[in-house]
Each structure stands twice: as structure tokens, then as C-alpha cells.
Amino acid sequence: MEWTIILAIILLIWADAVTMPALYAAVRRWWMGRKFRRAHFLSEPDVTVVRPCAGTEPGLLDRLLSVREARFAAPPAVRFTVADESDAAFPVARRAAETLRNEGWDAEVVAGAVAGPNRKAAQLAALMPSIESAVVISADSDVDLRGTDLGRMAAALMHDPRLGAVYAPPAEHAQPKTSGD
Q1: Residue by residue, what is the 3-state secondary structure of 119-134?
Q2: Which of 7, 37, 51, 73 places its Cα 20 to 30 Å from the Cα of 59?
Q3: Closest C-alpha among 140, 172, 3, 160 to residue 66
Q4: pTM of the full structure
Q5: Quick one: which H or E segment has residue 30?
């Protein structure tokens, strides 16, 4: 009779050794997913949205102001960058910044000499020393941010140390008007 008890104990230990890690992994996966979803709403980091601008195009003001309809826990700071005040985008960016400031946003237009072969990269580089936010989201002036979950993008960067950047490709919904669209 002793050998049956020993066999039962061995089988229980074996079953425990096999099922407990699987159960632990399942509970951990459920809990971490739950924790991330909860963290998205409770701990979004400070964000600055940078909108590099060059030249003017139809609907530019509307797209620059579309940040108001993006999703986030707290309104981000917004910086419109242009090469200089003679750029055709400057008055539009200034109007967008004024509109946002009148609505209580932290918004500015930054115009400065741009050096280097890549104008957009140079604008971002010139702006970076003045940004104090934990996360910077760069969205071209032709990108409509309505409905974009900026908070979730920023939270992903803060909650996963393996991430250094998040990319959300723009989606074209309108019919192209030129071969470059």
C-alpha cells in the first residue's frame, strides 16, 4: 500500500510541475494586458506634437488644427515649425497656434534658419533642446490627426522599454488629384 501513496505523491508533484507554470503564464499574461490597458488611461506621459510645415496647400489650417480631435488624456503641447517667416506656411501656422492658444492649448510657431540637406530633420533638431516633454510625436502638416490615439502611442513608448519609436503610417482616404498624391 505504501507504493501507491508514493506513486500518487509523485504524480501530484509531476502534475503540479507541469500545470503551475502554464497557469502562472496565463494569469500573468491576463494581468499584464489588463495593467497596460489601465495604464493607458491613468498615466499618459507629457507629449509634444511637432508639426513641420513648408509651403501652403489647400486645407492646411484644418489639418494643423486637427490635433484638437485626436485622443489623449491631457492636451499635448503643439509646436509648428517653419524654416523662416517668409515661408508661405508661416501665417497659417501662426493662425493655428493662435486658435489653439485661445482654446487653452500650449501652442507655438518656431521659425528658424534650417541647415542641412533634410529640412524636416533640421527643423526637428533645432526644436529639440527647447522640448521638455517625455515624448515627441512628429506629424507632417499634411497629416490629419482626427481620431488618432496619441495617448496610446505615447503610453506604448513609456511602458515598454524596448520601444524607442512608434510609427503610425498616414492613411489616404481622398481620391488622388495629382500623380504625387
Answers
A1: HHHHHHHHHHHHCCCC
A2: 73
A3: 140
A4: 0.68
A5: helix 2-42
Per-residue pLDDT tens digits for 49-76? 999 998 888 899 999 999 999 888 888 8
Per DSSP, helices labelled H in 43-172 are 60-65, 90-102, 119-127, 150-159
Report residue 47's pLDDT band, with 50, 70 and 90 as the boundaries.
Answer: confident
147, 71 Cβ separation under 8 angstroms: yes
57: nearest Cα among 168, 138, 140: 140
Alpha carbons 19 and 23: distance in angstroms, whole number: 6
* C-alpha distances in Å from residue 104, one per residue of 19, 22, 98, 150: 55, 51, 10, 19
